[in-house]
Structure formats: structure tokens, C-alpha cells
Automatic annotation (TrEMBL):
Protein name, entry field: ATP synthase subunit a
Matching CDD domains: ATP-synt_Fo_a_6
Gene (name only): atpB
Gene3D superfamilies: ATP synthase, F0 complex, subunit A
Entry keywords, A to Z: ATP synthesis, Cell membrane, CF(0), Hydrogen ion transport, Ion transport, Membrane, Transmembrane, Transmembrane helix, Transport
HAMAP family: ATP_synth_a_bact
The protein's role, per its UniProt record: Key component of the proton channel; it plays a direct role in the translocation of protons across the membrane.
Length: 288
């Protein structure tokens, strides 16, 4: 009999308990934990504001100023203040949610599912064939496709709202359905078809944003669990620092693409600007 088995992995989050008809999953509990961590950090960072910041206040101000500089460099000062709340919120929430994966007990402490054979349990620890029968109470929030899809929908819909606000309904709709182009003959018909492809692109943005974040963080969580089983010492030395880097990169990519989509939405879609806009988006994707 082997000492223990590899953990059981599944894409869908596991239900822990119910609040009436509402199921509470382990990813939802981790989402709440991430929000609490963020609130506590910013509470202590802003509790005693000093003219010369230090400690946690200094770190918080540096992080927010760096994000603001990034937003201004891409969107300009006119739109930076409008875009910043969403971009900064997404970055901080995703980064903290990703980092939760390295906390002790995440993916490893939970409820025993099914019968345990005699001699395969010692206190809270399981061994042998029963070792992978634990349903974890906490699982990183960003390994739930429901959450990443919801954030992607918020990003794309917010971009559409800004597009209508900045360009007006007529010009913004013509970015996707350019009916006047049909009056320009065959070339205009091709232009009309090209604008229809923009609608497809909006849906592809939802898929790419959600699946990229979900896939990378879920894969990282699996790698940590597998190597914690195979080589526990190696996890602490190599894979946990690597996972921290992945947590930052994925949060940065998601928030950067959000910023780019917002900027594209408020920019006029003339032929001269079209190539420049998509080159900016391509550079952002290349950072991944």
C-alpha cells in the first residue's frame, strides 16, 4: 500500500455547504477571504496617514501610484481617472486571490468525502487509498471559471458603456455595424464585413480574458499540489516563488488588457487609427 495518493482534481468548484437554496463553494469562501485580506491591508495602510509614508502605507501608495502612472501612459490624463478604479480593483483583487494559493491549508484541509478504511486516518490526516478523499474548504477563487468569466464580462460591458459615453451612440454602433459603408461599392461592402468581425472580437475578448486567467492559475494550483506530494522541500524553494511571479503576471495581464479595451472603446474607429489601436492590443497580449 502506498503512503498516499495524488489529490483529486476537478474543474468545477466543490460545494461545502448551503445557505438555504444557495450553494457555498470553496472558491466562494476563498473569494470572501481575499476580499477580507484586501480590506484589512488597506485599513492598516490608511489608518495613520503620515506626510512621509512608511511601512504598509508606503507600499500601498507606491503600488497605487505605479498603477496610476501605467493608466495615464496608455489612456492619457483625460481618461485615466475614469479607468483607474476598475483597472486597479481588478489588479489588486486578482493578485491577492492568486496569492491565496500559497497559504497553508488551501487545497489541503477540508471535509472527508466517503468512507475511510481502518488504519488510514490519524487525527486530521489521511493515508493510503483514502488520502485523496478530502474536499478542500478553500480553493483559489481564480480557479473558478464562473468568477473569471464574470470579471471578463464586466470588463467588456464597461468598455461598451464608455464607448457610448465617449463617441455617442451613432459612431459607436458604426464601429460594429457600418451601414453607410455599403454605399461605397465593393470596397464598402468589405469594410462593412470587417466591422461585423468586431462583434466577434468582442466575444473573443470575453473568452480570452476568462480562460487565460483560469487556465494559468488552475494549472499552477495543480503543479503546487503535485510537487508538494512528490518533492515537498522543492515546492518551498522553487515553485512557491514561481507561483508568486505567475500570480503577479496574470493579474497584470488581465488589468492591462482591461485598460487597453477601455482605451479602444473610447477611440474613434477611423481607418487611420484602426491599425494603431490593434497594435497596442497586440503588444499587451505579447506581454503574456
Amino acid at each position: 500500500m502506498q503512503l498516499w495518493k495524488l489529490p483529486h482534481f476537478q474543474l468545477a468548484p466543490e460545494e461545502i455547504f448551503h445557505l438555504g437554496p444557495i450553494p457555498v463553494t470553496n472558491t466562494l469562501l476563498c473569494t470572501i477571504l481575499g476580499i477580507v485580506i484586501i480590506l484589512v491591508l488597506f485599513f492598516f495602510a490608511g489608518r495613520r496617514k503620515e506626510m512621509v509614508p512608511r511601512g504598509l502605507q508606503n507600499v500601498a501608495e507606491w503600488a497605487l501610484e505605479s498603477l496610476m502612472s501605467l493608466v495615464e501612459s496608455i489612456a492619457g490624463k483625460r481618461w485615466a481617472k475614469k479607468f483607474f478604479p476598475l483597472v486597479a480593483t481588478l489588479f489588486i483583487f486578482i493578485f491577492v486571490s492568486n496569492l491565496v494559493d500559497i497559504l497553508p491549508g488551501v487545497d489541503s484541509i477540508g471535509t472527508i468525502h466517503g468512507a475511510v478504511k481502518a488504519g488510514e486516518q490519524m487525527g486530521p490526516f489521511l493515508f493510503g487509498d483514502s488520502s485523496n478523499k478530502i474536499i478542500p474548504w478553500l480553493r483559489p477563487a481564480t480557479t473558478d471559471l464562473n468568477l473569471t468569466l464574470a470579471m471578463a464580462l464586466v470588463t467588456v460591458l464597461t468598455a461598451q458603456v464608455f464607448g457610448f459615453y465617449a463617441l455617442g451612440a451613432k459612431e459607436h454602433i458604426f464601429k460594429y455595424i457600418n451601414l453607410p459603408a455599403l454605399k461605397q461599392g465593393p470596397v464598402g461592402f468589405i469594410t462593412f464585413l470587417a466591422t461585423l468581425l468586431e462583434i466577434v472580437q468582442e466575444f473573443s475578448r470575453i473568452l480570452s480574458l476568462s480562460l487565460r486567467l483560469f487556465g494559468n492559475i488552475f494549472a499552477g494550483s495543480v503543479v503546487l499540489a503535485v510537487f508538494a506530494f512528490l518533492l515537498p522541500a522543492l515546492v518551498n524553494i522553487i515553485f512557491i516563488p514561481f507561483e508568486m511571479l505567475v500570480a503577479f503576471v496574470q493579474a497584470f495581464v488581465f488589468s492591462l488588457l482591461t485598460l487597453v479595451y477601455l482605451q479602444l472603446a473610447v477611440t474613434s474607429h477611423s481607418h487611420e487609427e484602426h491599425g494603431e489601436e490593434h497594435s497596442v492590443e497586440g503588444q499587451a497580449v505579447a506581454t503574456h
